[in-house]
Amino acid sequence: MANQRRFTDMLADSMPKLVLAPSFLIVMVCIYGYILWTVALSFTKSRMLPQWKFVGFDQYTKLVNNDRWAVSSENLVVFGGLFIIICLVIGIGMAILLDQKIRQEGLLRTIYLYPMAISFIVTGTAWKWLLNPSMGIEKIVREWGFEDFTFDWLVNSEMVVFCLVIAAVWQSSGFVMALFLAGLRGVDSEMIKAAQLDGASMPTIYRRIILPSLKPVFFSAFVILSHIAIKSFDLVTALTGGGPGYSSDLPANFMYAHAFTRSQMGLGAASGVMMLGGVLAILIPYLYSELRGKKQ
Amino acid sequence: MKQSYNLSLSSEATKNLSLLDSVKGKIRRYLQQRSVLQHLLRIVLYVILLTMAFIYLAPLLVMVMNSLKDVEEIRNGSLLSLPQDPSLAAWSKAWGSACTGSTCEGIAPFFINSFKIVLPAVAISTILGALNGYVLSMWRFKGSDLFFGLLLFGCFIPFQVVLIPMAMTLGWLGLASSAGGLILVHVIYGMAFTTLFFRNYYVGLPRELISAAKIDGAGFFLIFWRIILPLSPPIIVVTVIWQFTQIWNDFLFGVVFSGADNLPVTVALNNLVNTSFGGKEYNVDMAAALLAALPTIVVYVFAGKYFVRGLSAGAVKGA
Questions:
Q1: Quick check: A214 and A180 in contact, CB under 8 A?
Q2: H helices present in chain B, as ranges
Q3: A57-295: what CATH class?
Q4: Most exposed residue of A134, A196, B218, B257, measured as fewest CB within 10 angstroms of its CB?
C-alpha cells in the first residue's frame, strides 16, 4: 500500500518530464541526430543509396569546384542581400507612413500583408506571367506606346536573379512592415512628447529616438528574412525553374537536385551542411548579442 | 472680462498690445502656411500608401481578371484589360479536369489531399506545443531551459540538412510516400514553433494561479485542463492559423516525401503549370493558382488580426 503510494507520487513528480520526453526524443533524433547523420553522409561517397565508405573532404572539394554550386551560392548572396535590404527599407518606410494616424489603416495593413499568407508556389506562378516578356509588363508597356521598352530579366541569365528579388520582396515586405508597425506602437510616447517639447523636429525624433529603440525588431526582421532567403526553394522552382540553364539556382535547389533527382547523395549532403553553416554564421552572433543583452 | 481689462490699460501698453497683435498675426499666417504644407504632405502620404496598396493588389487582380477570360482573349489582348465575356470555364477546368503531370483530374483531388495532411498535422502539433509549452513555463525542472534552447534552434535550421536522413527513416518505418509520413514530418518540424508560441504565452500568465492549485493537491493534468486550457483560446487561435498557413503552403516536404496519390495542392499546382500539352492555357493556370491560394487567403481575411499577432509573437519574441 505504502509502496503503491510512493509509486504514484513519483509518477506525479515526474509527469512534466514524461510529457516532455517524446518531444525531447524527437528533437534529439530528428534535429541533432539527423544533422550529424547528414554530416557523416557528406564525408562518404554515397550516390543513390548511402555507402559508408569514407572519402574525407572529397565531396566538399567537389562542391567548391562545381560551377553550379558556385552560381547558386553567388545567387544567394545577391538575392539574399538585395531581398533583405529592400524588404527592410520598404518595411520601415511603410510602417512609419502608416503610423501617421491614417484613415482605413486596418484595410491598408491587410492589403500589404496578404501576400505573406500565400505560398511561394502561387507567388512564383503569378510573377512568372507578369515578368514574362511576351505576356506581362513588357507587353503592357509596349502597348502603351513605348515600343522599345524591354524588360526581359526572366529570360536573361544575367538578370534573372533580380526577378527572384522582385517576387520575394512583394511577398515579404508587408510582413516586415507589420513587425515594425508593432514595434513603433510599442515606443514610449512620453519620450516622444518630451523631445517635441524640447523642439526636436519629427525627422530628428525618428532618427535619434524611435529608430534606435527599434533595434531588436530590426534584428528579428533580419534573422527571419535571411532565414527565408536561405530556405527559398519553392520560389525558384515556380518562378524560374532554376533557369535559364541553372543561372537562377539557389543552394536549396542545388541540394534537392543532387540528393533526390541526380543520385549524388554525398554531394547533396555536403551542400546541406554548407547551408546549415550559413545559417549558423548569421544565427550565432545574433544569439550571442541577444543573450549578452539579457544578462545586462 | 477681456474688455474691462483693456479699458484699464495705459497708452504705452496699448502700443505693446498692437505689437503683440501683429506678432500673433504673423504666427497665425505661419501656422496657416504650415497647415497648407501639412495638407500637401498628407495628400502625398495617401498617394504613396494607395500606390503601394495597388502594387500589392495588382498581381491578384491580374490573376482574377485573366482567369475569367478564354485563352484567345488572353493571347490577343492585354493582361490588364477587363474580361469581355467573363466565364468560370477556366475555374471549373482547373478544379476538375486540367492535367497535372500524368493525371487529368484537375486539382480537386490534391486539394483534398492537402486537407487530409493539414488537419491532423495542425491538430497534433498544436496539442503537442500546448503540453510542451505548459511544462516549459509552469513545471520547469533542471535542464528544461536548455531543452527549450535546443528546441528553438529547430525553428532555424535549413530543412535541407535533415531531408536525407528523414527520407531514409520514413522508408524504414514503411511510411515513405504516404500521407501518414508527411503528417509526421510536419508535426516534427512544426513542433518547435508551436511550443515557442505556447511557452511564451504561458510565461506571461500569473504563477499564483498554478501554485495555489498545486498546494491544494491538484495534479499536472487537472491544472492544465481546468486552469490553463480555459485561458488558452487566444494562443490556440494564433497557433492553429500559423500552422495551417505553414503546412498548407509547404512545397519542400510535399515534393520530397509524398507519393503520387497524396501530393499536396502546391506540388500539383506546380505540375499543372509546368505541364505543356499543346497550347498553354494561362486562364486555367491562373484559376488553379487562385484555388490553391484560396484557403489561406480566406483564413487570412477572416482571422487576419490573429495571423498578424501570431507572426509578431513568433518573430519579435521568438527570435
A1: yes
A2: 2-7, 11-67, 71-76, 89-96, 108-138, 144-153, 163-172, 179-203, 208-215, 220-223, 233-249, 252-257, 265-274, 282-312
A3: mainly alpha
A4: A134
**Chain B environment of A108 (Cβ under 8 Å):** 49, 53
**A183: Cβ–Cβ under 8 A, 6 or more apart, which residues?**
A95, A214, A216, A217, B316
CB pair distance less than 8 Å for B53 and A183: no
Tell me: the pLDDT tens digits for B75-90? 777 777 788 888 888 8
Mutate to test the interface with B, among A5, A10, A20 (most CBs of B within 10 A): A20
Tens of pLDDT, residues A175-227: 899 888 888 877 778 888 888 888 888 888 888 888 888 887 888 788 788 87
Say if the Cβ atoms of A121 and B270 lie within 8 Å: yes
Cell of A48: 543513390
Q: Say if the Cβ atoms of B316 and A182 lie within 8 Å.
A: yes
ipTM: 0.85
Residue B96 in contact with residue B115, Cβ under 8 Å? Answer: no
* B158 prior amide bond cis, ω within 30: no
CB contact under 8 A, B165 and A143: no
What's the CA gap between A205 and A217, in Å, rounded? Answer: 18
Do residue A179 and residue B312 have CB atoms under 8 angstroms apart?
yes
Mutate to test the interface with B, among A18, A31, A286 (most CBs of B within 10 A): A31
What residue spans define the domains of chain A? 1-42, 57-295
Could you give the count of Cα atoms lying within 13 Å of B93 in the half-sphere of its Cβ? Answer: 19
